[in-house]
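Protocol step 6 of 9: fold each sequence in the batch and record its C-alpha cells directly after the sequence line. For illustration, a two-sequence batch is reproduced in full.

Sequence one:
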Amino acid sequence: MAMNEHDRAPQPGDTSDDTSMALIHLHVRGTLKGDWVKKSRAAGQKLTDWIVERVAYAEAQTTHESSATPHAPEDQKQESNK
C-alpha cells in the first residue's frame, strides 16, 4: 500500500504546514515489537512508517472513507493466502 505525505512519520527538518502532528507512544510486548521490526525490515521500511501504514490501512477498512478499495499490506496478503 502506497503511503501519501500525510501517512508517513514526521522527520527532522520537515517543513510541513501541518501543525496538528501528534506523538503516539506505545507499550507492547517485546516479542510483538520484534515481529514488527522483522516485518518492517523485510518491507524495507522504518518501523514507524510500517506501523503508520498499517494504522492507515485499518482506518480505511473501518471508516470506508476512500472510494477506492485499499490494498492489504504485503504481509497481510501472505498471511491470508495460508
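Sequence two, same batch, same settings:
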Amino acid sequence: MDRQTFTRSGNPPHIPSLADAIRSKLTGSFHIFVRPGFVDIEAGTWEGVTLSAVQADVTAAPDATPKVDAKYLVDTGLPTVQQALVLVLLDEINLLRANTIWPMTARTLAQLRTALKNKIDAL
C-alpha cells in the first residue's frame, strides 16, 4: 500500500466523516492514520487521484467530538436495539397525536432525526 500525507491544522478529523468524503476518490480499501498536524492515508493505488481534492476533504472534515460522533450515528444508523426503541417511541407518540381531540399529523422519521440532531447541538 502506498501512503500519502496531508496537513491538518487544529483538532483531529472525525475519521468516519473523512472516510465517507474520500471513499469515492480512492479505489479499493484504504486506511487513515492521524497524528498531530497530519493525516496519513494509505491506499492500494493513488493513480488518477487528485491529491488537492483529498487535501480539501481532510481540511473540511469536521473535528472529532462527541457531538459529531452522536450526529453521525443519527445519520448513518443507530445500533439495532436503539433503532427499535426509537421507532417504538415514535409509534407511541404518533398514536397519542392521532387520538387527541384535535388530531395532529404523524411525526416522520426524518423529523425525528432532525429533532435529535438539534437536541445534540443544544447539549
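Proceed to step 7 once all outputs are recorded. Observation for sequence two: DSSP finds five helices and three strands in the chain.
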